[in-house]
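Help!! Second protein's tokens look totally different from the first
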Amino acid sequence: MSNKNNQNFVDATTETVDNLREFMQSSLASLEKISKFQIDSSKKILDETTQAVKEISSTANFNDFVNKFSKFAGESVQNNVTNCRDLYELITETQNNLSKLIEANVHASKKNLNNVMKDMPNANIPDSMKNWVANASQAFANVQKMAEEFNASAKNNFSAAVNKATAKNTTHKK
């Protein structure tokens, strides 16, 4: 392998590794945001539910009990719908950021790496390098597929949650 081809391969490999690292860091940061949101939402729901149960359980009059319970149930459904929307927005933002990273970096890295391999005489490419490039290409494909599945799952989960919450709210109001 010539020095120029060797340096091109090293540069393409370094860029590829850096881009995958950036993608993974962005993914982890997004998961951290989503996890924090879920934990904060769970704490809020626990606090609100505890307060509501205390308030409802201290009611002696049956009509007041029913009114307080209905009010709590309606507020709970509204809060859940709001949380679902907020989570959906967070997931959509995450998906958009990851898609931009993939489009801007990963495809270019894959192309650069493949171009370097094409520029090298096939006889001079060690099998281990060919395997590494094939594995890197598969990793790129897996990352892209993961982002697409994440997006589809987020959309489906949000739609299901909103439909379920809306159905409960409609049933509750009858």
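Here's the second one for comparison:
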Amino acid sequence: MKRKVRAFIFFFAILACALSAAFYLGWTQYKVPQGNIGIVVTKTNGVLEKTVSNERFSWHWHFLIPTNAQLRVFPSNPYRFKKIFSVSLPSAELYSRLLDSNPDFSYRFDFDITLKAEGSELVRLVKEMNAASEDDVKNYLEKEADALSYAIGNEIVKEYTAGDKQKRIELASRYQDIISDCLNKYSVNGIAQVVSVSVTDSKVPDMDIYEKASEAYRLYLDKVGESLVEQSRSQAEGITRFNQNLSKLEMLGEMLRKYPELNSFLKGTGKISDALNSIENLE
């Protein structure tokens, strides 16, 4: 009887140890530090949709199979980026050289962009881009910040260029509206969460001066074109006269071969041009 009791106790102890080990191996909650998010990646089921956090109990059987699963841990804090968007108007440098003041016909916008990825966004990053570390997430978010600054900057330039003088003056007060419109489009396809976007500094060209410089350059090109046409006409006339004189010389040579006695006439004229004029008169 005592032997059976010992065997039962021993079996129960082994079972308890096995269950404890299984529980410990599959318990993922404690592996995620406070303020972080864990993503379970398995060989059997791929990337699991449900995230792991320190505040919520989680246990995954996938870790009971050796080398089958791994837990990727990412900070959930947002990342702040300073981005600069700059672009010049067409032929800006050329037009600037036409004016004594050498004005700058370019745009520049300084953006302060804060983004973050958590929950479903991190799952997508792991699935679609195989993100494995904080650097991977930060690098992706920085690329998103680049894309956002480019899209918003282009939209501001578009509105500034298309607007009249009054709208250009008022445009600075509409930056946030333009940003909101761009963020609405981004939220449809973007992975990251946009915490905030703002324009901290901006510089825009004087469109009135730019348009005057453009018109002045157009007039200059018109004059250059007219001059080139006149030069071409003069050159064409010169080529025509040359060809005519060449034809006359060929005729003169042919006549001298047929009528050698004309050599004395040519010597008498003293100038080939007089001889050519004489041939033209004979024609």
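Reply: Different proteins will give different token patterns, so don't panic. The CA atoms of residues 187 and 193 lie 8 Å apart.
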